[in-house]
Design a protein that fits this description.
Two copies of one chain form a homodimer.
Chain A (H helix, E strand, L loop, with lengths): L2 E7 L1 H4 L7 H11 L3 E8 L3 H14 L2 E5 L10 H9 L3 E3 L1 H13 L13 E3 L3 E3 L7 E6 L2 E6 L3 H19 L5 E9 L4 H10 L8 E7 L2 E10 L2 H19 L3 E4 L4 H12 L3 E5 L5 H6 L9 E7 L2 H6 L5 H7 L4 H15 L3 E7 L14 E7 L4 E7 L4 H27 L1
Parallel strand pairs in A: 1-2, 1-3, 3-8, 13-14, 13-15
Antiparallel strand pairs in A: 4-5, 6-7, 7-8, 9-11, 9-12, 10-11, 15-16, 16-17
Helix pairs in contact in A: 2-6, 3-4, 9-14
Chain lengths: 418, 418
């Protein structure tokens, strides 16, 4: 076990103007890898405070990850302050200087005096160079590893994942490789998920599990250590399968694929088209589906029927159904799904009608009552839910549940046709 | 000028599992009030580290704001650690104990041993009691003000705004009151906004201005100090008016009122109804409009016409228009707006058609080309935009711009009819 700390610098952070992403990202990654972060400190652009903190950190930590202040402008003070604190002279890294000149020339950006500052580093620094303008560097000092990373989150993350994490894993005595996978789940609470995981034999040892609530989903990160990347990928597959066995349909898949993309892929594979009829979700399902590039291949369109007139005139909901059962009823949901399917000439029609609140509830149909219907060429299925939360939460839960119902249906159809 | 620091504690923070909101909130509020926060430190639930940090902070800061670890469970270690570090005995606050017993009894929640821990405080603590289960407390020690606040953000914020900020303002020699207002702007960059503000005489002195990018909007916080709350409200009104004079239509209004609510209020006041025809936004405008409670009063519904068939069959877009000008054209946008208006029998029809990318662009119509049309009983207006960014950014900019066009139109109509 080694432990260290993270320092994030920037006037925009200490003034609360911008949220810190970098320190949190590093903390999460290190925690997942079983490496202890004892503290995170956020400072403004104050060299004296930074120097003092750096010296203190050197005395108590095995590693220090520092983000921000590496650029070419006046308020980028980290390099000079670090060199002063560590008693190291600053030198131009000639190889980096040449690389930067070439980089700018290729882009026809004129070379300025201040660009040179990007290559001015403390003696002994190892350049971490992802190939753009922003580089980082690593130092060893009094047995402590120091990593200086740029403040732009994408650049920071690339260097952290590619260099800092592997070298700290090695320092931690884990002279091997680490592999991680984050899985999305929907329809299970964090507590339930923890209980399920505790019961799975495959999860007993050799795997770190992190839980990250991501409303309305729950995400779970698996971290495994070993010597061989392929072997670790197989271990992650085995763990994923073991979890899938227990939670079955509640496992959506890997983090990088949102539910709307998962559904989109399935529709594309099955050669099916989809139309929507949204009431309480107001367009949120359409928004999510169309956030996927290429969704026009399978998503034909939708109707947001906020008033009853639209339900009758456009979706051909039977006016008697509306009168007898109400706009929020299984019967209306059913007619809406059929109507959407017919209107757009789609294979599938998905409909949602419900009461998002805060008004509109009744003892029989309280706020949060939602009906979801899915019309296929063969049948219409209707589901009834009672969601809790405010208007926003009920909309989000309704949209997620509708997409998830569609996903499960498509999965089942594929499974039964194979 | 006084300066101090913020300490946020919690295993969920140091593991990166949950983002810190509290420290950032306190930092932002203090910065706006002209009080310097020198550092923010995040720790896990580690009493030795906390005690060490607290002693160090006592030696260098005039105030310390501490959040988290005040609850009744095992991992709530802040009170005991602070008492030990400060050498203060712990006492039950009898008044608080009685209040808590009464609070739980009223809600028929059984009193548990651990609830008593909520009233166990260091000697000399002044209870900050918002009336629920979670309280905070304040201490003076060696001339330093310490504020202990609960970790739940809503509770933390209430106590911070109601007690911590005013008492630090007073400590800062500003024995008066502070008033703040955050304004939303759209259609102006942060740099442009800074330049505009620099030119306004009213902003020369006596006001702190903070800039907060909030894509696609820019927010600006005004902070004024004085002796009289009513006087300050007038000052804020005067500053708001001065800014409005310069940026005119780009000022949306106060932070607490999102654009969709602003538009909704105007529609309601004018007694007008609205229908949508969304193409590239895919339902996002409908989603935003329906996130406002009571939106069914003026929002009748919309069509998400992702395919051309839906544009022709439902929105009655002339097939020849589609053939001659294409789905992304001012002519199609115009027909869509008219179609939506007619289909739902609404007073106004708002339509968006564009290319969100990454595919679908051409030299004449590159990715980001968006047409927005607004049909009223009298006319149809069409606007042409070229937005930059990825698919998500283009969708967000399109939806915001469409709502903003509607807002400006309604404002103008009201102005001209007065």
């Amino acid at each position: 076990m080694i432990h260290g700390e993270i320092i994030a610098t920037g006037a925009e952070l200490i003034s609360g103007r911008v949220a810190d992403f970098n320190a949190r990202y590093a903390a999460r990654r290190l925690h997942e890898a079983g490496i202890t972060v004892a503290r995170i400190t956020i400072l403004g652009d104050e060299p004296p405070l930074f120097r003092e903190l750096l010296l203190r950190a050197l005395a108590r930590s095995r590693f220090i990850v520092i983000t921000g202040g590496l650029g070419a402008t006046e308020d980028d003070l980290t390099v000079a302050a670090a060199a002063e604190a560590l008693g190291l002279p600053l030198h131009y890294d000639e190889a980096l200087l040449a690389r930067l000149r070439h980089f700018l020339a290729e882009r026809r950006i004129p070379w300025l005096e201040r660009h040179g500052r990007l290559a001015l580093l403390p003696e002994g620094a190892v350049v971490l160079d992802p190939g753009g303008l922003a580089c980082g560097f690593a130092l060893k000092h009094d047995g402590v590893r120091l990593f200086f990373l740029p403040g732009v989150p994408t650049e920071m993350r690339a260097l952290f994942d590619g260099y800092v994490l592997p070298s700290l894993m090695e320092l931690a005595g884990d002279a091997g490789v680490v592999a991680q996978r984050t899985l999305r789940l929907f329809g299970i609470s964090e507590t339930q998920l923890q209980e399920v995981v505790a019961q799975i034999p495959e999860f007993r040892e050799g795997v770190n599990v992190g839980y990250y609530p991501n409303f309305p989903e729950n995400h779970l990160t698996l971290t495994v250590h070993g010597q061989d990347r392929q072997e670790l990928a197989k271990t992650l597959d085995r763990l994923t399968a073991a979890l899938a066995r227990e939670v079955n349909d509640l496992l959506l898949g890997p983090e990088e694929t949102p539910l709307e993309e998962l559904v989109g892929r399935q529709l594309q594979e099955d050669g099916l088209t989809l139309a929507l009829a949204e009431s309480c979700t107001g367009g949120l399902i359409g928004h999510r589906l169309t956030s996927v590039a290429g969704s026009s291949d399978y998503f034909l369109g939708g109707v947001v029927s906020y008033g009853n007139e639209a339900k009758v005139d456009l979706l051909q909901v039977d006016p008697e159904v509306l009168t007898q059962f109400g706009a929020v009823s299984p019967e209306t949901a059913r007619d809406m799904a059929l109507g959407a399917r017919g209107m757009f000439g789609a294979d599938l029609g998905l409909a949602v009608t419900g009461i998002a609140g805060p008004g509109g509830g009744s003892p029989e149909k309280p706020v949060g009552t939602v009906y979801i219907a899915l019309a296929t060429p063969d049948e219409v299925e209707v589901w009834h839910y009672l969601f809790h939360g405010n208007r926003e939460a009920i909309k989000i839960l309704s949209a997620e549940t509708a997409l998830d119902r569609l996903r499960r249906k498509l999965k089942k159809t594929v499974a039964s046709s194979q």
